[in-house]
Amino acid sequence: MLQTIRTALLRDTSARIGIAVSGGGDSTALLHLALRVAPGLGFAVEAVTVDHGLRPESAAEAAQVAALCAAQGLPHATLLWQDRTATGNLMDQARRARFALISDWARGRGIGRVLLGHTADDQAESFLMNLGRVAGLDGLSGMRPQWQAQGILWQRPLLGQGRADLRDYLRRNGVAWIDDPSNDNDRFTRIKARQALAALARLGISVKTLAGTIANLSQARAALTRTLSDVVAAHVTEAAGALLMPVQIFDDLPPDLRRRLLSAAIRWMAGADYAPRESQLGRLGDNLAQKQAAMLGGVRFRFAADRLQISREPRAVMGAMATDALWDHRWQMTGPHHSGLTVAALGAAGLRLCKDWRSTGHNRDALLVSPAIWHGDRLVAAPLAQKSDDWQAKLGPSFGMFILSH
């Protein structure tokens, strides 16, 4: 287990590491293992707990994690989820809130990556859940061991470890953990999957055998990803956050690669956690096959001469934010940040103030949704539409890197 953590840590050079700790056995084991390895490798560690406020015990559990960290002399923060809505999928809302809160915390602390405690059991349970949703290759290929999002590298170093083994490790080391009572509530789909997995053991279907199946499917997905990455590197141009691709190359792609390209472009531009539904991608593909402009998931697809142009939909971009925030999922501004300034889309009004924007070589659609610095209604800087000595806009990750990491 220690070697697993050591290998994961050495994949990146971020000096400060965050550990997401709920207090359960998996994340507590991750914290304990990381604290045994990270200091010797020169990494500083901090812990974070998200209190969703969904159970009466959650505040006390967060306090218990804080006490555990204090005993280790480890910096710890408890983040409260306070903006949930009364409608929609509560578990999905909680998951999104958790990642957003931890991302903000990590960036504010100068932490470049965060470790999560998902295990081989989580992999197996997710596999069964996705089977019930008639998932394709992507949905059955397992959780990503690492990916980049919100300016943070996220890692799951325990995906090869079983839940029972981690608890045995904690017992051997005299470390207590919290058992979440919701783990016995079969109203939740994941708990039903856990119970189904126990029943399937008689057929030889276990966490271990499913891990082998997931690994095989993951290799197939990786091969497709590499092929798509090669196509993008050879034929797709990234300019001011937009993508340009020769129509002939797009038309000649096999259907599955074409679908993957469209899905990846939407997720990259819109910051979506999941790919659009197959039916939506199918309609989008039909429109593009007929050379019709289309929109999906906050992304616009248009044809200009012999190129397919993919750009952000103006009505979908984020509103004004603080200049040091990650704007519209992808853009980070560098410059003289101070109160009174905001980052927002350049828009048509702003573009009219950039007299020489055509000399940049960027197309109008891309510049309309590019980030600009505003002081109220006054345009301060538009780094992509005109030269600025004070401000720069950094886009990350690139589309090619996004494909490889997702």
Would you mind describing this structure in some detail?
This protein is of the alpha+beta class. The protein is 42% helix and 18% strand. It has 14 helices and 17 strands. The strands form four sheets. The chain has a six-stranded mixed beta sheet with strand order 3-2-1-4-6-5, sandwiched between helices. A five-stranded antiparallel beta sheet has the order 7-8-11-10-9. The model has no long low-confidence stretch (mean pLDDT 92).
In short:
With 406 residues, this protein is an alpha+beta fold. The protein contains 14 helices and 17 strands.
Q: Using DSSP, what is the number of strands?
A: 17
Averaged pLDDT: 92
Q: Share of helix among residues?
A: 40-55%
Structural class, judged by helices and strands? alpha+beta
Distance between the termini: 25 Å
What is the CATH superfamily label of the largest domain?
Answer: HUPs
Counted by DSSP, the helix tally is 14
**CATH architectural designation of the largest domain:** 3-Layer(aba) Sandwich
CATH fold naming of the largest domain = Rossmann fold
CATH class term of the largest domain = Alpha Beta
* Strand residues, percent: 15-25%
Catalytic activity: cytidine(34) in tRNA(Ile2) + L-lysine + ATP = lysidine(34) in tRNA(Ile2) + AMP + diphosphate + H(+)
Protein name: tRNA(Ile)-lysidine synthase
Keywords: ATP-binding, Cytoplasm, Ligase, Nucleotide-binding, tRNA processing
Domain tRNA(Ile)-lysidine/2-thiocytidine synthase N-terminal: 17-195
